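User: Could you go from structure to sequence for me? I need the amino acid at each position, not a summary. Structure tokens:
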């Protein structure tokens, strides 16, 4: 009988120690590291980003940064168009903290932004990618007007970027299925 009692006490001590260790890891000073390790292991074993717990999905929300050394309006427009097409084609999953917006890229330009939505739409048209990302309406001097060229029949590229800025965000709006340049 004593052997059974000792093994039961041993199991209780191990269980209490395990609970204390779990509390320390997930609620104590090393919780961030432990959570990241758990999320990493979860990704490795499941291989499916969609099944991740919400606190693991925050890692996915980190926007990818790209530094762009474009000197001309055309180079800037070509770069924005390329990143916008990539964002639109990937249709990223939502970031739990951002609601219906999913951040794709943060573009950091070495020169102030001189390109407009019309320039980016011209780049889409020139590269024959309007099939991938149609844009028939553009913002010109504060007003939305029809694009003078031919770039599809939908407005899937929304322009909110300020002229002269050096940082532009390329985001995907899940609700409207559009790419927003901010």
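Assistant: Here is the amino acid at each position, in order:
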């Amino acid at each position: 009988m004593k052997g059974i009692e000792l093994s039961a006490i041993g199991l209780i001590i191990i269980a209490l120690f395990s609970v204390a260790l779990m509390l320390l890891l997930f609620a104590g000073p090393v919780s961030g590291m432990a959570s990241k390790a758990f999320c990493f292991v979860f990704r490795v074993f499941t291989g499916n980003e969609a099944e991740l717990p919400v606190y693991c999905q925050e890692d996915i929300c980190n926007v990818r940064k790209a530094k762009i050394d474009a000197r001309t309006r055309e180079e800037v427009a070509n770069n924005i168009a390329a990143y916008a097409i990539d964002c639109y084609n990937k249709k990223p999953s939502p970031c739990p903290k951002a609601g219906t917006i999913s951040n794709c890229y943060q573009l950091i330009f070495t020169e102030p932004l001189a390109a407009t939505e019309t320039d980016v739409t011209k780049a889409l048209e020139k590269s024959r990618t309007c099939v991938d990302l149609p844009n028939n309406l553009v913002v010109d001097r504060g007003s939305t007007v029809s694009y003078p060229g031919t770039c599809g029949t939908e407005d899937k590229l929304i322009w909110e970027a300020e002229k002269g800025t050096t940082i532009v965000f390329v985001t995907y709006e899940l609700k409207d299925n559009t790419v927003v340049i901010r």
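One structural detail worth keeping in mind: The first strand starts at residue 64 and ends at 68.
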